[in-house]
């Protein structure tokens, strides 16, 4: 109902509008007034390049044929974006740090800047995107045919599908070349293109929603009525069967595609201006997808119920408004579909052409021409531009060939899924690049190569079956009649859906090969470094700045002039000069022959990589840097050494920590030694004092005896008695000191035998009984109720008891002195408590009472026959410790002091086992 | 791995939420669960399975929206190893 000329003219005018928009945006961006163009909203809209004419037209077709399957195409990307924190954020961070230009550049950069891998990825991308481009050509061609058929055969429509398809392809090629390759951009960012894509995203959105609203609320009375009508007309409005492997497969494929498709990578990662935009896109892009899919089902069911049988459901979006005589809406819908097709073709072919020129053409040119850079000004930039334009034309032509060969029999969606399954082959390598440090370039090459081959055999090749008898025969019988190799029934797996079948085998072999080969091969230095940079991008303090800081020690032999010459040819004079000035490198006549610092060479390599990809920049630079002196191997060696230095310094730090600890321990030991030394001095002076006192009196008395022979008998006897008394005291003192020293140094043999402590206690009490009587002390005893055995030495034990009891007697000043001894047995111990009703121990002495030479009260108070020397308690304490027991001052039943001696019970109670109980031997 | 000691606890919780959202989304969109809703019922005249799918989809979008609104920027580095 619309004249084909009018339709074509509208499309051309629309393209002109896009072009103007892109031009203005580019201009603004160059003037630094990008503002709105770099907003999260524009970013989100540009990501919507995911919705091609497959979404615009094909989704309705899929809904009409396969029910809800179309939703899986949008659910996958939703999951990826909702989970942006894990994958997309890391991808973006790395890409920004490494100045990544494409997915091929990303993978090759991670796997040691491998040219081979970049070429393989590029080839796979070109081949797999071909069906996708064909899909767009087919959609545009069909939509032009559909919108103009009612008006009879128009001039252009009369060309037939093939002719029209070719014309569309040519128009698109010219458009894209004009659009995307006007110059080689500094960072492969195209603000103009992004603006146009965002605009197109809005157009297709509004168009589809308009058609949807018209169908649901204009033609019909809400969605419920549409379903009811479809059900009346005999269509199944429910899912025909349970969701199964095909649903899972499509969900997985679409999730892969939104990351791995070259155009998605270009828009989402390369064109991204700010990582934070991802935050908005995380919910806004899924929301866009949801709104785009909201009307798909109603349109499909309304079309099925009302359109004549045999109409193409892929074109319902267009034919429903036409059938309702809404020409304006139909034209709008056509422009919407046209928008979705052009945006996909523009971005996809730009992305692919960057990959082809950077990874295939440039390395080849560098290999075959000795000094490309020297030929003419801007030589490399011109080569890049020409090769990009050529590759855009070639890519579109390939798309046309596929469109032409496969005929128009198929629906739109299956063609798109073939492409999805193709780009999914990047996924294992991509995930390995992000998360597995050990993946090697050989693993990536082998896995991806094998996966691609399996995809080609099981999915791509069968898509030609309709147009080729040979392929059809291959499908039916297998190559050379080998049934196990039939493309859609590999190894006899014939009963699965072809898509599921292909994805299963290709992914299994791809991932398996990647893992096995990676485990079997080794990484070279560059790979190892890049793997670290990629996997640990969030860990490095440099924010993924790569190995920029590691190559400082290399001696460069490239002169600044050479480098400037090269930079000028790739980046242009202005940018090259800015770069050199920024780094403070002098070049030209002022600095003839001066060498550029290596850090700058590395920086330059990164800058070049942002234009021509990592692998090409590497080749190019290594040609200029004289004699290939700046081999990356050397850089890596330095980096390796740096790593070693780091690990050494870590070890050193550990060592020094240990040393610090040892020093502290030594200090502590030293302090302890000092304290002991002081103690020893104190002890010595105490001992000398103790020895000196009796010695002085002995000496003076004996002098008196010598000088005065005329002393009377009684006096003489008194003096002799005094001498005797003092020497006894002295002997006892020396004995005790010897005893103490022996105890402390463990020199004396000390064996613990099972003994009866009650017997020892009784003996001690007998000894003390005499003194007690002498002093008129009430002496009482309370026995342990059961026979008891402890490990010890009965003499020593007795010594301890005597010591304590004697103390208790000696220091008791009470008018009615009493000493009470009580022994008892607890679960694990034998306890003796010796208490008196004396003055007790003053609180200030309680802590030191067991130290040497501590005497309570005045020093001269010898108190009878057992004068205190201040060593008794210390000796007792030492002995009891040797018996594994304790002696302590406790609150007793009597008002005075109460000493409690606790000894561990010997488990071998029966005396028959005497000798077997060796508790604490001497230490 | 634990975050730096000065990181507020809320951040860790949000990071966990960032993991839970896509994980649960995936679970809800895969067959054993999905087929629970595929039983030929109509809700307001619309097949239940379609309503369910759109419902999960909307919930994911709202979840992502709520989560990203809270943290103004990605400037700070996450704890190492949390990005798997």
From TrEMBL, chain A:
It is found in: Membrane. It catalyses: ATP + protein L-histidine = ADP + protein N-phospho-L-histidine. One of its GO terms (cellular component) is membrane. Residues 686-907 form the Histidine kinase domain. Residues 645-686 form a coiled coil. Keywords: Coiled coil, Kinase, Membrane, Phosphoprotein, Transferase, Transmembrane, Transmembrane helix, Two-component regulatory system. It comes from the Bacteria. It is a multi-pass membrane protein. GO terms for molecular function: phosphorelay sensor kinase activity; transmembrane transporter activity. It is an enzyme of class 2 (transferase). SUPFAM superfamilies: ATPase domain of HSP90 chaperone/DNA topoisomerase II/histidine kinase (SSF55874), Homodimeric domain of signal transducing histidine kinase (SSF47384). The keyword Acetylation does not apply. InterPro entries: HATPase_C_sf, HATPase_dom, His_kinase_dom, HisK_dim/P_dom, HisK_dim/P_sf, Na/Glc_symporter_sf, Na/solute_symporter, Sensor_HK_Regulatory. Its EC number is 2.7.13.3. Belongs to the sodium:solute symporter (SSF) (TC 2.A.21) family. This is histidine kinase. It comes from Paracoccus solventivorans.
Automatic annotation (TrEMBL), chain B:
Keywords: Membrane, Transmembrane, Transmembrane helix. The chain crosses the membrane at residues 17-34, 40-65. This is DUF3311 domain-containing protein. It comes from Paracoccus solventivorans.
